[in-house]
Specification:
The chain is mostly helical and 567 residues long. It has helices spanning 16-21, 26-56, 63-99, 107-126, 156-186, 199-231, 246-279, 287-300, 316-344, 353-376, 378-384, 388-418, 424-442, 444-450, 470-500; strands spanning 238-239, 242-243, 420-421, 502-503, 531-535, 542-545, 548-551, 555-559. It has a two-stranded antiparallel sheet with strand order 1-2. It has a two-stranded antiparallel ribbon with strand order 3-4. A two-stranded antiparallel sheet has the order 5-8. Strand 1 (238-239) and strand 2 (242-243) form a beta hairpin. The longest helix is centred in the N-terminal third of the chain and has 37 residues, at 63-99.
Length: 567
Amino acid sequence: MGGSNMSGEHHREESFIKRYIFSTDHKVIGKQYLITGIVMAIFGGVLALFFRINLANPGFLSHEQYNAFVTLHGAIMFFWVAMPILLGGFGNVLIPLMIGARDMAFPTLNMMSYWTFFLSAVILILSMFVPGGAFSGGWTVYPPLSANPEVLIGAKWGANLFLLALAFEFASMLMGGVNFVTTVLTMRVRGLTFMRLPIFIWMEVIASLVFLFSVAPLIAGALMLLLDINLGTHFFRVEAGKAGDPILWQHLFWFFGHPEVYVILFPALGILAEVFTTYARRPIFSYKTFVYANIVAAILSFLVWAHHQFVAGINTISALGFSITTVLISVPFSMSLVVLGLTLAGGSIRFTPAFLFGLFAFLMFIIGGLTGLPLGAVASDIYFHDTYFVVAHFHYTVFTIAVLSSLAGIYHWFPKMFGRRINYTFGKWHAILTLVFYNGFAFPAFFLGLAGHPRRYYSALELGYLQKYQWIHELMTISTVLLLATQVVFIFVFFYSIFAGEKETEPNPWESTTLEWLAPSPPPHLNWGNFAPLVERGPYEYAKNGKDIDFIPQGRLVKLKGETAEK
């Protein structure tokens, strides 16, 4: 299914600025998202390091700084790291290549989406330096801490800029989502039916649709909150005789916020599927089961938001209903994990850095999923809700999605994106040390939660009955320091490898089956040059030759006749 981009008329890039800065090439835009996400991850990680040091050594930060750093860390890692890397980064680089297209459906809109995102990141960082400092009322921006001027945590300017940054970030992802869905629906190469799409493409499309259908209530809520802060309206503000409803914000936020978790989970599962099928040398165990299960999970994701509000005084019958839907949504995700696990069973596994990160992400996400079950039941959630148990569960899901899965994807597609390799030995040590130090930070938080340690507290020493657990905070902080130090070394190696890494001479070094590996590494402008891909079979097909497994590409390249699309 060709599109107008086959002519390449909209791609007359000449100058360095237009070619690499304000580019409309999907690959350049994807790398811009990826690198910006990595830079923001450094920023968010440093903030986490600071407040973790304060938890081990109270007094390192002021109370206001602690609250601001916790707020910004949560928002950055969710909205400015996970989303740009998993959707903007991998999605932009891979979608056209995986469907045989030469670019996105709307290249100029694609460029606008990145620069809108970049502007949002700049605004967020600037919010730390305005009078009164950064907003510090929590990344969920709950009223009345965010709505009433007399109790507003962080000055009004900090709150306004925080909300403005979110608005630009959402606008960016809306542009990208429309582009992704349109591209996949209209620009698939001949022979690429829906049931021949790589799983990563399915996951990007599902994630984009969930985002498109869930974000509107929060955009409306953010506008209402800005009016409360600046014009004195009472949507959420609570004052004598003029009572707004703070719980309304929670509904608006979590109607988007919980599907948003799945918006970043779906691409992560897509990465794991591509990594497992490649390095286990086996097709996905059940392609249709995986696809349909995640479609069902996407639909159910709109019916679980209020399990975040079991302690907010919502109607008990409603709470029971949301508890049931929360348990139900674990079924399709469990099916997806079973499919991934069975894909590995009996495979000829190659323990590359990408596979190690994929395997660790798979195992850690199982822990995150299992520990989410007591948070989905009303009775147990009332005890665990505001404790470190939630911190541990949250990191075993979101850190797994945002960091481990992303690293698996970076190691897997790095040769295709940059035409070079990251050192294998370093990559394996990077994966192992990341796993060790990550568990050293996250797993002890479960014990703090079981002991009833409340989250978001400035210091355990302020709670006499928890002073005996201070050593756990010290252990978690040491692990955090080592975890971040490992990632700093990786970032150095990442950028070094872009410019001076070993050159990749093979277009398909991993003997993968999907279309992007037919293109040169890195792909040229408009991807295919004088050729066009032709799909002949499903995305994960192999042939057994005795004890060996022969690689069968999903398609082949055919020579174009007449004038080529390449400029």
